[in-house]
Design brief:
Immunoglobulin-like, 2 domains, 23 strands
């Protein structure tokens, strides 16, 4: 059982159906293959003792699935080689083959994390060597040895060690960009009552800069968020315009004067980061959905109007436009839905 300590299962959300009624039991055995890999395992140090360190780094999965070519997984070995492993169902595992080698000598670093990989598109890859350096790689068509060639187009030191959580490749105004989300667990000197650490998510956008005949990729924008718990899920929207974070505790954007880019006044006005509290929170059980909406201090119960329909909800304050309005995923019983004013000016809505 010790050999399965780092195994994990991940749900494929596209296959989940909330209206699915049951399963059929099959007694057919599942194909199971076993192959010893020489992965570059990095163990937690004595100063990485919190639950957040364990969550972020201790339970890290060394195998990286290529979602664009789902018969291929990758790992980084102790020599810094990115190895590809092809899976052929009902046949066998292919022998690992080297597709890329990190220029960094990983054994020379005491303070490092596991190397991490994320596949931004079918031809672009982001790699962290675990020492604080980020690589943007053009891979060609992966899985096809004839056209696959991993080539570094960008690499830069971005501070303390991190792991790559997510990345996306996109094109806007004929400019190719790759947005990368980096995760760190950092010491927090101001936190004297908690764990003494905070979680940092750095959202880095790398864009192709065209200057005469010189085409190169450079960091276009860096934004930092901080929170107090490792997110259960964090990803960049496909367009590169926003983040999706599921976390026990909230994250907030941090202002960093050193990382501000020179922009003209019009760009600053349109791109300025505004930190706002979520419009509402919600939680769900098998029987009901509870929505918590924050309302202004000057609003009374008589000013609030909540309307339920079999397939929708509308929340209005005074004569203002709807604060929240939309169609629900499935039908509800409007007569059983209720709402109350709770503590700290919160409107609690229960939908059955």
């Amino acid at each position: 059982m010790a050999g399965a300590a780092h195994c994990s299962l991940q749900a494929k959300r596209l296959l989940l159906d909330p209206k699915f009624e049951g399963y059929k039991l099959s007694l057919e055995p599942l194909a199971c293959y076993q192959l010893g890999l020489d992965a570059a395992e990095v163990k937690l140090r004595d100063d990485q003792y919190t639950l957040d360190h364990m969550h972020a780094f201790g339970m890290y999965n060394y195998l990286h699935l290529d979602c664009w070519y789902q018969d291929n997984v990758y790992y980084v070995d102790q020599f810094g080689r990115v190895m590809n492993l092809s899976v052929t169902l009902d046949t066998a595992l292919q022998k690992p083959r080297e597709v890329f080698r990190l220029p960094t000598d990983l054994t020379a670093y005491d303070n490092r994390l596991c190397a991490s990989i994320h596949f931004s598109s079918s031809t672009w890859v982001t790699v962290s060597d675990g020492t604080g350096r980020l690589y943007l790689i053009k891979s060609g068509e992966r899985g096809n040895s004839a056209s696959e060639k991993w080539e570094i187009v960008f690499n830069e030191e971005l501070g303390s060690p991190f792991i790559v959580v997510h990345s996306v490749s996109f094109v806007k105004s004929d400019t190719h960009s790759v947005a990368v989300l980096l995760l760190r667990v950092e010491k927090d000197e101001l936190d004297t009552k908690g764990s003494g650490f905070h979680i940092t998510l750095e959202w880095v956008t790398i864009a192709e800069m065209r200057k005469e005949n010189d085409h190169r990729y450079e960091v276009f924008k860096r934004r930092v968020l901080q929170g107090k718990s490792v997110p259960h899920y964090a990803a960049i929207e496909p367009s590169g315009d926003g983040l999706m974070i599921v976390s026990y505790k909230p994250f907030k954007f941090m202002q960093d004067e050193d990382n501000k880019l020179e922009e003209n006044d019009d760009e600053k006005a349109t791109n300025e980061e505004k930190v706002v509290d979520p419009l509402y929170y919600w939680q769900q059980t098998e029987d009901d959905v509870t929505i918590t909406v924050h309302i202004p201090q000057d609003i009374t119960k008589d000013d609030i109007k909540v309307c339920f329909s079999p397939d929708g909800i509308c929340v209005t304050l005074k004569d203002q436009p709807p604060l929240m309005e939309g169609k629900l995923y499935s039908s509800v019983d409007p007569e059983s839905c209720t709402w109350i004013i709770g503590e700290n000016k919160r409107c609690c809505i229960s939908i059955l």
